[in-house]
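User: Here's a protein and a ligand (magnesium ion). What would the complex look like?
Assistant: Let me lay out the input and then the predicted complex.
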Amino acid sequence: MVDNKKLWEQALVEIETNVSQANFGTWFKNTNIVNQDAGVIHLGVPNAFVRDWLLNKYHKFILKSLRNIHQEIRGVEYIIIKNDDKAKPPREDFYNKPQLGDQLGLNELYINREDNLNPKYLLDGFVVGQFNELAHAAAQSVIKSPGTNYNPLFIYGGTGLGKTHIIQSIGNHIKKNNINKKIYYVPSEKFTVDYVNSMQNNKGIAFKEKYRKYDVLIMDDVQFLSNKERTQEELFHLFNHYYENNKQIVFSSDKPPKHIPNLEERLRSRFEGGMMAFIAKPDYEARLAILRAKAKTSNFTPSNETIEYLALNIEENIRELEGVLNSIICQCYFKKRNLSLMEVKSLIKNNIKPKKAVSIKNVTAVVAEFYNIDEKTLYEKTRRKEVVKPRQIVMYILREDFNTSYPYIGQKLGGRDHTTVIYACDKIKEDLKKNEVLTHDLEQIRLLLYNE
Ligand code: ADP
Ligand code: MG
């Protein structure tokens, strides 16, 4: 049999593609095969908590992944490896515990083989706020009448903000409404691999037939098509087929088409040719709503204090919010009580990253570059029209994203009075409500600022 390390690495590849990043990171890191005994794999885990969780929720799946590599594997036992402690045998009574995984609704392992859709992704219970309302509305419209108004639908935004969730939901809802519609969800990496394999095996025609037979094609993470010239070309033709036949296409990407490097011009213009919707980071209120919604579906409701603490401190993305909330709910479950705020703090201290140090200089540099003006002018007194607006945008970003005080912003940007800064921020806020160009500009600026 292959060595332990290789075997587990291979199994982890399969596991990783089937569980969310948050769960993968929480439960599978620091695991390894310690030995094999007559077809039974002894899997080393860091603590009892992880062991119980793996046994309870992932056991069958782990076994299946291992058996896919070696059929003679008969079982898996979990052994706690504490630094150099001796391995301890697994606790027997755990089998009798109720299925916590079910209570948390983490049924992510059930992926339909035909369309690759995971039925857990639906718009029911999906939290909508300013940060994602456009994407949500567009998705609803596509679900209502696929292939008509918004074709293609292109959803973009940072990691863990709900892109996969929304585009998979589109597939699931269309499927529910019309069982005859053939839908296919594919991450762009898988599309690339499929294409390359078909070329190597002289199966180009079968590949074309396969990808042309659906009514709805959903492709995730198209930023990975960067540099893949041949695959891009294939997608271009495939796109035309869908478009011309009024069949719906949905794309997601972590950046707008314009910023995907080495993307063929004609494909970029196709991506941009339908509806583009940006998902921003959720603000505090939205983070609170997401946590409350997720907590409601589990048996344990963390205290308000805990939820507010998490919403305030975990700002990066929804996946992280979810991961942390899951660990807390798990701990509550095993301890059979709510955690104190102290316990919550110590549990999540690794998730709280120091805020990215973005200086005023970073903001002015990006804004100046974006509007093609001389950065120096932003710091000067000049009231030239082409400078006033960008300067107001700098002020707005410093206030909104970094909570910088009004007087400080004023002092740094040309020694202005704090009331000027307040006026500028309010003005941009108002303009954003009605000016789509400005909204789009700000999205781009923030992407440039934060995605580096
Ligand atoms: P992305 O594809 O943008 O990286 P995902 O779609 O994988 O992000 O979302 C990360 C996690 O957050 C998923 O578990 C998803 O169900 C959850 N999620 C994202 N947006 C929302 C939302 N608005 N309401 C509830 N859950 C959400
Ligand atoms: Mg995704």
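Summary: Residues 163-164, 220 surround magnesium ion (ligand 2) (CB under 6 Å).
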